[in-house]
Amino acid sequence: MTIDIRGLCKSYGSHQVLNELHFHIDNGIFGLLGDNGAGKTTLMKILATLLGFDRGEVEIFGHSLKKEPDAIRSLLGYLPQHFDFFPNVTIMESMNYFAALKGIQGKRHIQEETSQRLIEVGLIDQVHKKIKQLSGGMKQRLGIAQAMLGQPKLLIVDEPTVGLDPKERIAFRNLLQNYGEDRIILLSTHIVPDVSSTCDKLLILKEGRCLYQGAIDDMIRTVEGKVWLADVGKRQLEQLSQQARITSIVRKEGRIQARLLCNRPPDCCTEVTPETANLEDAYLYISDPEES
């Protein structure tokens, strides 16, 4: 099972949203990372057969996206960026509706399938609640459940952890890990920890162009030796920001521990130690190298 994209282009009027994208995806969880406006949602909608494109070729499991969209739809589950449903419908009624759309047949089969998905997202005890009674996080969990109905071979999730609390986010990551063994999951987000904790490979988009495609470990290696921790006082922080890119700060007992991204330790402070690079460091470096 593979996805192959060659020369994909998409414009809205004169605005080029996707520009000559080329990439290949195998089984597993594949991350799509980029700032807001990078083209992630447009790409997800195209792969979900909801949006056309101008040029290029897209093949999903050997099916041409332009010529065989129905064959692809039968194999996929999709969670859009903003999921909602009719306000006066209950959780179970909505799941039964989505099951019918997926072509799941048989009353017992539908009940088993919908119940299992709701158990997985922690909503099985809330099935009689109406959509209008749900919090944002509960709606998002319902969206995840409907996307997994029928155990699709391709699962596309766009910003899936938006609105989830930390506990729900961890549970969702674990769910994806268990679900992604024998299928393709496309995870689109701007939240770096969601990618680092679930994906082995990723694509970075910026203004519709591919900045990086490959293994996460290889990407992190691009910033080895460029990440530092500096222990500074409040007055030194402004001077430090002129010599290095500060990616985070932690305040401890009147002092500041700054995480830095730069080629060499800055001259303005003496207490600087090398630090192990992570995906966020690599993402910041690749997406905006001139600042580093």
UniProtKB/TrEMBL annotation:
Superkingdom of the source species: Bacteria
Name the InterPro entries on file.
Answer: AAA+_ATPase (IPR003593), ABC_transporter-like_ATP-bd (IPR003439), ABC_transporter-like_CS (IPR017871), P-loop_NTPase (IPR027417)
Query: Which Pfam families does the UniProt entry name for this protein?
Result: ABC_tran
Q: Does the keyword ATP-binding apply?
A: yes
The terms under GO molecular function for this entry are: ATP binding; ATP hydrolysis activity
* PANTHER family in the cross-refs: ABC TRANSPORTER, ATP-BINDING PROTEIN
What is the designated name of this protein?
A: Multidrug ABC transporter ATPase
UniProt organism field? Paenibacillus terrae (strain HPL-003)
